[in-house]
Amino acid sequence: MKKSNLKLGFLAFAALALTSAYAAKPVEAAKQTSKSYSMMTKAPGTKSYGIYKRVSGGKAKGKITTTSDFKTAHIESNRSIKAKKYTYWYIYVNGRAVGWVNQNWFRRSTIKAAKSVSLVNNPHYSFNTRDAISYATNSQGTVVSNSKVQASVSSISSKTAGSHQVTFSYGKARATTYVTVRSDAWEGISSADLTPVHGTSAYKPPKGHYGKSTNYRSSLTNTPETHGHSYYSNGMTFNTRLYQPVRLSLPSDEGRDIINSVGHINEGMAIYKNMFYTSLLRKDNDMQGHVVGYDLNKLKSRYNTQKLLTMSMNSFKYYSRHIVVSPLVPTGHGQAMGATSKYVYTLVNNHKKPNWNQSEELVQLNKKDLTINKIWTIKLWNHSDSYPRYLHNAVIVSDDTMYGLFHNGKSHYEFWEFKRSGDSWNATEVGAMNGNFVANRAPVQAFTYDPVHRNFYVGFNDYMMKVSRRGKFLKAYGSFYSGREIEGAGVANNHLYINFAQRAELLESNGLN
């Protein structure tokens, strides 16, 4: 055979061998796969994981920061990348795009629920057991609707005393809550027998709002405020203390999924020492919402908290570290709140119901993460269930004391003190006043108590009314002519605080007397 033919034959054999070897080797799988979803809420974990600019070649690259400052933030995501070893999610923190984080950071297959619920004896009320759930997550750390959680008992009547064990489950997640119906059928039945003190009906606040802060056009069209406000009336001055973000979630969430949407409607507030809390609803008729806490000792600027989306990453981390966002929890209309050294409280009421004999949930939240620690229910009847006192406004001033305001719509206000003994809450009427405060039937927008000077404050739009504990009208502050709604009030550090709407603006008074 010629030398050239031998050479050609060798080359052909080598090519065939190479082709066979390549064909026998499996094609290497793609190093990562991406998916997109509708926006969802993730439950942040407590460990520290890196957050990265990108995921490429199956690895997270370009470290931005860590999760250590975002443990109490609102976390959202709509994209994931499954790499060879881990799955990564692109996260939005308090409404701001941040980066990619390992799925292992999230609380996965977890149900967080109150350990105990204590119900007042009331034949007219049944407790929805899923109200005890702070959140439930799937295997990827996504928060799911409480309605998707299986409950061994979905509703418990408070007609008959007894104890119930409720087991919640979702996938591999489990939690147990113990529900007790208290035995004393007379608990919460009291006497509204105080002679009302002559009051006033002279003032005319706006029934709604006609004004907004300077740079607020709508919840979707606004820019940060650059100037504070000062309002003076009758010896009291209110000055801007803190402008708040319109929302702590993405604007695209507005009016949509209630779990994702943190804001934009602020309804009530509570304050204890340096911690200020506000309730945020998606819609004004929602019975669930989010509670957000701000550390006023750390957030000293009146303006910067509005700028979470545009401030530097280092500043954003600092601010997020001193803001606590609750999961979706029962709030009712959100205008009955309180805060103590360990807990935040919401009295869950339906403000569309003028008066009925249903019980009301008193929800105790852990201050650390604003998850539900315990739930009681209370009732308030004047002698019998034929004369109920359903409270739309209340303030919790200690872990065993609450004050409630009842207005029957007929020129009569009652002031009630609730005291807790064990799990029982009993009420005593401490004050009563004839009059409506206002001449135009404008609604009450705020209610709080000053335990040092033993005075109540009742808020209407552009007005605050000072009332003695016995119910005597003492003084009116206003009109402030702001045109904005007052959404809650509180007393702390010998100052009265009120929170305006559109945009949410906390104002602090001079010293009380």
UniProtKB/TrEMBL annotation:
Record domain Ig-like: where: 127-181
Keyword Signal on entry: yes
Keywords associated with the record: Signal
Record domain GW: where: 33-104
Coiled coil location: none
Record has Signal as a keyword: yes
Signal peptide: 1-23
InterPro entries cross-referenced by the UniProt entry: GW_dom, Ig-like_bact
SUPFAM superfamilies according to UniProt: Prokaryotic SH3-related domain (SSF82057)
Pfam families tied to this protein: Big_3, GW
Descriptive protein name: GW domain-containing protein
Organism: Lactobacillus corticis
